[in-house]
Amino acid sequence: MRRVFVLLTILLAVALTGCGSNTPRDDGSATRPEGSGGSASGPVGGGGFARNPAALRFANHMQKQHGFDAKAVTAVLARAKRESWIIEQMDKPVRKSRGPSAPTGAWKRYRAKFITDDNIDKGVAFWRQYAGELKRASATYGVPPEIIVGIIGVETRWGRIMGKTRIIDALATLSFAYPRRSEYFTGELESFFLMARDEGFDPLKPKGSFAGAMGYGQFMPSSIRKYAVDHNGDGHRNLWNPVDAIGSVANYFKGHGWRTGQPVAVRATASGSAAGSLKSGFDTRYSPGTLARAGITPTGSLGGADQVSLLKLDVGGGYEYWLGLHNFYVITRYNHSTYYAMAVYQLGNAVKARMGGTGGARVAQVLAPSVDLAL
Fold first, then answer.
1. Which of 98, 180, 248, 341 has a Cα-to-Cα distance from 230 of 20 to 30 A?
2. Do 350 and 363 contact (CB within 8 A), yes or no?
3. pTM over 0.90, yes/no
4. 100: exposed, middle or buried (C-beta count within 10 Å: 0-12, 13-18, 19+)?
5. Torsion angle of alpha carbons 297, 301, 302, 305, nearest 10°?
6. Which residues are CB-neighbours of 342 under 8 A, at least 6 positions away?
7. What whole-number distance in Å separates Cα of residue 301 and Cα of residue 266?
8. In degrees, to the nearest 5, what angle opens at C-alpha 348 toward C-alphas 347 and 350?
9. Going by C-beta distance under 8 Å and a sequence separation of 6 or more, which residues neighbour residue 177?
10. How far apart are CA 48 and CA 68, in angstroms?
């Protein structure tokens, strides 16, 4: 990404006088037409959040804690837009599980968004282009290339969909015009200003998701400051650069406890009616013995794990059962969703299979899995 120093010079007009602690954590990308400006409270005067009381308090905090010029921070926030559509997007009702019901094929629909022949081919192209960087990241951080590839593929289709919303608009709107989560997003805005200073770019330039996630891996600012690495050795941590993104995704997983060489998830068979009564999800914990007594049996090695999660995927006409291990839980630290983590795992493995020239059978198996009819 092109680094612009003009506004940064203003932003850093006052020398650093002792940094306070940064309170750092991801969200997927989404884009919509940008809305109009306007402040959530108080008159606008100069546009954006120039006279918003919370924005003024934020600017003073940045001066006191991090040595920024409060007037320069306010000048940046004055050019941020309050985007009403972002608030509407955040307030969209989350589709909640209705409890026990007949399967409707929700997993098949979700999986079909990511695991397609065309998308797998693009993943193969990405892997081949950055094979050396993926191998080096895997050796350094202990995370398999297919998991790194799977994350970048699910998040941004390997850089094709990184979001078109200005990050300053997203974070200012959610910090100062969205009280329900203002504390979290104000912390992300703080990290974003610090990140701009650390890496030397104009905070008005970067674009990403409506929630402020950025780059190939869609990291939030606090995650960038905590986990991003300079994997290409140019002196900057730049997640719009695919090489830095590869290393940063691997480091993120290492930081969340990835266990090198351990399995992620194992397919299971289910017999009898007891399986359907067990709670499922990435955050459940069962001993293999407990599951065996309920008729749930792994089809492969659990790597010696004494605790697993029960994953129940709605494939329509029945459910597909998997047992999630520690590394599956680590994937959910990126996005707290069983379906998300399974899409990452299966997409990465589908790309790996096609890379190895055995893609036909492996991909067909991923796209059309067998169904366990135990409900």
1. 341
2. yes
3. no
4. exposed
5. 110
6. 107, 111, 265, 311, 313, 322
7. 7
8. 65
9. 39, 40, 41, 82, 87
10. 19
Task: Report how far apart the first and last C-alpha atoms of the chain are (Å, whole number).
Answer: 50
Tokens 């019901």 sit at which residue? 101
Q: How many residues does the chain have?
A: 375
Hey, which residues are catalytic here? 155
Which residue has tokens 């004055």? 78
Give the C-alpha distances (Å, rounded to integers) separating 147 from 116, 321, 330: 17, 21, 11
Q: What is the pLDDT of residues 107-152, one digit of tens each?
A: 999 999 999 999 999 999 999 999 999 999 999 999 999 999 999 9
The owner of tokens 């993104």 is 245
Q: Count other C-beta atoms under 10 Å from residue 64's C-beta.
A: 13
CA 180, CA 157: separation in Å to the nearest integer?
A: 31
97: which 2 tokens? 């599980």
Query: How far is residue 174 from each of residues 40, 82, 160, 202, 354, measured CA to CA in Å?
Result: 10, 9, 25, 20, 41
CA atoms within 13 A on the CB side of 260: 11
Spatial separation of the C-alpha atoms in residues 232 and 84, rounded to whole Å: 38
Please count the other Cβ atoms lying within 10 Å of the Cβ belonging to residue 34: 15
pLDDT of 102: 80
Residues 6 or more apart whose Cβ sits within 8 Å of residue 213:
26, 27, 28, 29, 163, 219, 220
Only one residue has tokens 């790309």, namely: 351
Residue for token pair 């690495």? 229
| Distant-in-sequence, close-in-space partners of 23: CB < 8 Å, separation ≥ 6 | 187, 190, 222
Q: What is the CA radius of gyration of the chain?
A: 23
* Residue-wise pLDDT tens digits, 202-230: 999 999 999 999 999 999 999 999 999 99
Query: Whose structure tokens read 């930081």?
Result: 255
